[in-house]
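Q: Sequence in, structure out?
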Amino acid sequence: MLLAVLSSIFLAAMDQTVVSTALPTIARDLHALKDLPWVVTAYLLTSTVCLPVYGKLGDLIGRKPLLQAAILLFLAGSALAGLSQNMPELIMLRALQGIGGGGLLVTALASISDFIPITERGRYQGLVGGAFGLATLVGPFLGGFIVEHLSWRWIFYINIPVGAAAFVVVTAAFPRPAREPGIAVDVPGMVLLTTSLSLLVLFASLSGPVLPWRSPLPWILLGTALALLVAFFAVERRHPEPVLPLAFFRFRTFAFSAAIAFFVGGAMLGSVSFLPLYLQAVRGLTPTRSGLELLFLLVGMLAMSILSGRLISRRQRYRLFPIAGALLITAALFQFSRLTATMPLWHLDATLIVLGVGLGMTMQVLVLSAQITVAHRHLGVATSTISLFRSMGGTLGVATFGGILATFLRGVPRTDPAAAPALIVQGLRTDFAIATVFGIVAFAGTWFLEEMHILVERRKAL
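A: Exactly. Output:
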């Protein structure tokens, strides 16, 4: 079962970083530089809004069929994305791929808690972080190599053998779930939540670059999203099996874990996603070399995820890790806000290592703290909620920061992203400055997390 979980996480994580190093090449080939952020946003949008649905259904009907369905959807999206002939097709198929990718991550993460005791969960969460880090470490180099020697289309085709192997392992390892009669599925809540979150992402993505702020359309999107959220909260208070139990947010640690995940996700993914554009268009690196540069971030995250997981299991304490991790994340983002076209690469590499170490100390702990806070039968919902807030932060971050970058790139020739390196640098400096503020908010929130032994004792009473 552990092999099944790790293989599923590896598949979804590798796809994210394989694509990142190929984005500039895709933009040149499909002649759509200004639409470049949507290749990332489309995937993050669908993978985010489906997280609570996967989490709740996993608790109700079992995780095996959901994990199998997620793999098949992911593979279908990958195979078809490789056949895309224009940017709208690619964006649409990346959205399909995201529906599967979101289910892969959240269902696999929740599955660990089904067969690993609480006292050992920190160590295995570290292994999950290690698998995630290894996949993201392999991804940039593999993506750059494929783009240079084959075609960017193969970054999608490469998922097919990996996904097929993951499907076989999941089918063989996971037990058949026991189905309970009379399950009350929260269909209205699922529809309201996914629709409102989608509209929020569209508001962040389209406002400014596509829809002028003075026009009524952005505000119609935002107003509709907020109205649907109000309706969602009203439905959740009455439903016997809500897709997102609001009572969980009465627990201090759960609420702050979700908030920290949101700001860290937004700061990290929203800003770092566009570093390959800087490395290739401004510094003139090849796709392979730009992928190698990102390995410094991933090595730091991989090493610290495993080390922190072992230390948490040994000491049964975790609070220090997110505090120190959020501080390192904030410091690294501040350094990136001073980015220049001539910054020494060793300086950039050192900053990436610091950022990776901070992420390795923070992200896995937030999932662990949320899982310990709630009763076992709600593990899927707890995991999906933290993943939802982290992904929602990342999705809104990519959309918002991508919009800022697109504003700076307005007027640049569509077929030549290297035509205005100064504008790219200015846009990224602005993105990282905003990300630094996100990091400060996350650091402040970590001080309100409760220690592990307090949560374990409280959970025994649930």
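The domain at 2-175+241-460 is CATH 1.20.1250.20 (Growth Hormone; Chain: A;).
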